[in-house]
Input
Amino acid sequence: MKMTIGRKIAVLLAMFIVVGVVVYMYVSRDATEMGDNDIPMSSIEPSSGLASGRDVINIVGSSTVYPFATVVAERFGKASKFKTPKIESTGTGGGIKLFCAGVDINTPDITNASRRMKQSEFNQCQNNGVTEIVEVLVGYDGIVLANTKAKPQMQLSLRDIFLALAKSVPAADGTLVANPYQTWRDVNPNLPANKIEVLGPPPTSGTRDAFAELALEGGCKTFPFLKALKKTDKPRYKAICHRVREDGAYIEAGCDTFS
Output
C-alpha cells in the first residue's frame, strides 16, 4: 500500500470535521494522533499495528450518524486516490461490540457513536486486545421529541415522558407498579386523551442511551424517593429510571423509519 490505513483515517477524519457531523469516533490500529482523550485511557497511545491484508477503511456504528458518514466517505473516495470506505449501520452499541471484538482484517477500523464509550465496553476492548484506541469528539448531539401537526401540540415535561414510557412507575401509595397508562391524559390531565404511541431508537442505539439518561432519568428524579435511591442502590435506580415499557406504547424504530 502506498498509504497506511491510519494515514487514510487521518484524512477521512479531517473531512468529517469539515462536514460537522455530531458524533464520537473511536479509531483503532495505526491511527495517527487525532485528538485529546478524556476517557480514562492513560495507558493508550496510537500505534502501527495495522492488519495489512486490507486496503480499505471499514467503519461501523451509529445509525443516526450513518447518512452523514456515508456522504463523508463518498467525498473521501472522490477527492482522493483511495477506495471509498465501507460503512455499515449497526447502531452505536453494535458498532462498539464489533470494534472491540479484536484486531484483525475482519474487525472495523472505526466505530461511530452517538454517545461516549462505556467503561464496560472499553474493558471489553482491552480484554480482546484492542488496546490502542483514539477517541475523537467531533461534535454535540441533541434529542428532539416531535408530534404530528395533525394532532394537538403537547407541552411535555420530563416527568410526563417518564410516566408515559417507563416500564415501572410510582403508584399513589408510593410503590412501583407496571406502567398502567394508556393515554397522555392518564399521565397528565392537561394533556390530550391520545393513545401513548412513541417511535424511538432501539437498545443498540446511542441515542436510546442518551434518551434514557437525559429524558427518562430526568423525569424519574422528580420523584424524591427515586432520586434518593441513586445513592443507596444505584443499579436498582438505573433499572427503574432507564427501563422502557414493552407493551407497545414505545415502538422501536431505526433512523430509516423517520426519513
About this structure: The chain has two domains: 5-137, 158-258. Residues 67 and 89 are 9 Å apart (CA to CA).
